[in-house]
Amino acid sequence: MGDYILQEDGSLNRSLLREIVFADAREREWLERLTHPLIAQLMKDQLQAVSSPYAILESPLLIETDQKELVDRILVIDIVEETQLQRTLARDDSAEATIKAIINSQIPRKQRLEAADDVVDNSAKFEATEREILRLHEQYLLMANA
């Protein structure tokens, strides 16, 4: 990759980067080899600095990588893939094919759910999702103080 991946202000063109790395497995593997060790170290540093009773590590590749060794529990925020696709299309400036490639590059939903200690259904109404998050927060506080 070169300067063409940068915008005029010098910032990364994330949309173009997504298109490139999810259209070509070699590009994605190169980017992962470059970024994953840096991201892992940053996560470790941030976790060591936490002063709250518990921390939440958000990572789309937690289960697929060694990152799962950094956590005591796995919380999955779940949604059916069609809804995930529709929400992502509405939110991001990416082509549908790119979004599908990203989803397909991740661990299958069934395996993600099997790996989870806790699951929040993100297809429910906001209030129901919020109640479940608050319930888990209370549970995690109790576990952290046990």
CATH class: Alpha Beta
Strand content: 5-15%
The tally of beta strands, per DSSP, is 2
Using the alpha-carbon principal axes, give the shape: globular
Number of self-contained structural domains: 1
The total of helices stands at 6
Structural class: mainly alpha
**What proportion of the residues is helical, as a percent range?**
55-70%
Taken in chain order, the helices and strands follow as: HHEHHHEH
Task: Average the pLDDT over all residues and give the rounded result.
Answer: 91
CATH topology: Rossmann fold
List keywords for this structure.
about 150 residues; 6 helices; two-stranded parallel ribbon; Rossmann fold; mainly alpha; single chain; 2 strands
Give a verbal description of the structure.
The mean pLDDT is 91. The protein has helices at 14-23, 25-48, 81-91, 96-105, 109-115, 126-144, and strands at 75-78, 118-121. The longest helix has 24 residues, at 25-48. It is built from six helices and two strands; from the N terminus they run H-H-E-H-H-H-E-H. A two-stranded parallel ribbon has the order 1-2. It has a single domain, classed as P-loop containing nucleotide triphosphate hydrolases (Rossmann fold), CATH 3.40.50.300.
Short description:
This protein has 146 residues and is mostly helical.
Q: What's the structural blueprint in terms of helices and strands?
A:
Layout lengths: L13 H10 L1 H24 L26 E4 L2 H11 L4 H10 L3 H7 L2 E4 L4 H19 L2
Parallel strand pairs: 1-2
